[in-house]
Every structure is written in C-alpha cells, then in structure tokens.
Design goal:
With 253 residues, the chain is α/β, with parallel strands linked by helices. The chain contains seven helices and twelve strands. The strands form two sheets. A seven-stranded mixed beta sheet has the order 6-7-8-9-10-11-12. A five-stranded mixed beta sheet has the order 1-2-3-4-5. The two termini are 31 Å apart.
Length: 253
C-alpha cells in the first residue's frame, strides 16, 4: 500500500526519516545502454521522474496484482520514443495468467480494434502457460531466468539476471527453484512485516531464506509500515539490509 499508508498515523508513517517513504516496489536494470524494468507499479510515473528514466527497452512482469502493473499506461511517452527511434514497440513479458489480466485491465491498449491511436506502443509476449516453468528470456545480450516462487495460493515469477535475483511478493520458494538461486552476489526479496501473512514472507522467514541461499548481500523489499528503516536495519545480521527508494546496486549481468 506504500508508506506512508493512507489514513495511518503510526510511527513509521509519520517518520521524518526519508528512508521510511516507500513507493511500490520494482527495479530498473541498466546495462550496455539498455533499461529493463521488472514491473511497472502504481507509482511508476513518480519513480521514472525521480530517477530520470528517459527510455525503457523491455519490461518483465512478476504477476498481475495492482501494485505491480497499474503503471503500465505511463510507459506511453517512453514507448513513443522507442517507436520513433527504432520503429518498434516496447516488449512486455509475462506468463499467460498475468498477461490475460493485463490485457483485460488495459483493454484499450491491447484490443485489435482499439480506437485510441495514442495508446502505449507495447507488445505483450506470453512467456509460458505453466506457472512452475523455468524460462530464459534473452534481452540485449543478457539472460533473464524466470524463477517460480509461491505467492499465497499461486506461483508467480521471480527473476535471476547475472549474479543478481529479484523475488518480490513471495512466501515460499519451491525446491525446484533453489538451484536457480545459488552463487548470488545480490538477492532482493520480499519481507513484508514481522507478523505472519498468507502470501508474503515475514522478516524472520526472509532472514532464514538468506541464510539458506547465502548470497553475498541481501536486500529486503515490499516492506509495510510495520518495519521502520533504521530500527529494522539495526536488528539484521551482517550482509542483510532493507532496500529503499532510489537504491543503486552494482552487479555483474
């Protein structure tokens, strides 16, 4: 829901610490002059302006919940740039279930008989119809590996790219996905709060996963207003910390 959370006056929502101001989670991967996004959340426009994003070459989607897709329409101006420069739409990648939802919500963008000539110039690729599938997507010389993770009752996509992996919105990792998460330098994963949740990992569960997977560095994301930045970081083991808006992480892709 973002932090501050609408209508809340708790200590984190009213905190003066800028690290306690959290837009909805996503990541930008930049390499060789290309920008690949994972998810376009509700706050994508605000994030793109803040980080001076002037081009997007591809978007990978983890799943089709509102906080991960509702910024899709704000790809419009960036898609016009790509179409003018290269004559092609921005490619979007999602599994079949997520793609169906995206097409339904953004019907005016994807309908073949759309009467909106200024709709986003995008093309949606279905990566798989099997939510448990491991799929590799080649983008501009780099490989993005789909890593199935459990998000409550459904399997959704995490991604590994080079020696980094991004696993938002999950409360479990299938055994078959664990080999894809070995020898990581950077792991970014869900840690919603301390109390149990039916579809998100708690902070303690995520700490346990990091200790099992042993990446060199782990960052927690998708935190609710139950976790204050400074106090939570002070309680974490070495090599683990909360992510924050605008965080930049170098890694090999």
């Amino acid at each position: 829901m973002g932090v501050p959370t609408i209508g809340c006056a708790c200590a984190v929502c009213t905190s003066a610490d800028p690290y306690d101001k959290r837009t909805r989670p996503s990541v930008r991967i930049e390499y060789d002059g290309h920008t690949v996004l994972i998810d376009t959340g509700t706050d994508f426009r605000q994030q793109a302006l803040r980080e001076n994003i002037t081009r997007v070459d591809a978007v990978l989607y983890t799943h089709a919940h509102a906080d991960h897709i509702l910024g899709l329409d704000d790809l419009r101006p960036l898609s016009f740039v790509l179409a003018k420069e290269h004559g092609q739409p921005i490619p979007l990648y999602a599994d079949a279930a997520a793609a169906d939802t995206i097409e339904r919500i953004f019907e005016y963008t994807f309908a073949k008989d759309s009467k909106y000539p200024t709709s986003a110039k995008v093309h949606l690729h279905r990566t798989t119809s099997d939510p448990a599938a491991h799929v590799t997507i080649d983008l501009f010389g780099a490989k993005f590996e789909r890593v199935p993770v459990q998000h409550g009752p459904q399997l959704i996509a995490g991604y590994r790219f080079g020696n980094a992996a991004y696993l938002t919105d999950m409360n479990g990792i299938p055994e078959s996905s664990l080999p894809l998460l070995q020898n990581l330098d950077v792991l970014i994963l869900d840690a919603l709060r301390r109390d149990p949740h039916p579809s998100h990992s708690t902070l303690d569960q995520s700490v346990g996963l990091v200790q099992k997977l042993k990446p060199r560095q782990a960052y927690f994301t998708h935190m609710s207003h139950d976790l204050g930045h400074a106090a939570t970081n002070a309680s974490l083991p070495a090599g683990m910390q909360l992510a924050y808006d605008g965080l930049r992480i170098p890694f090999e892709i």
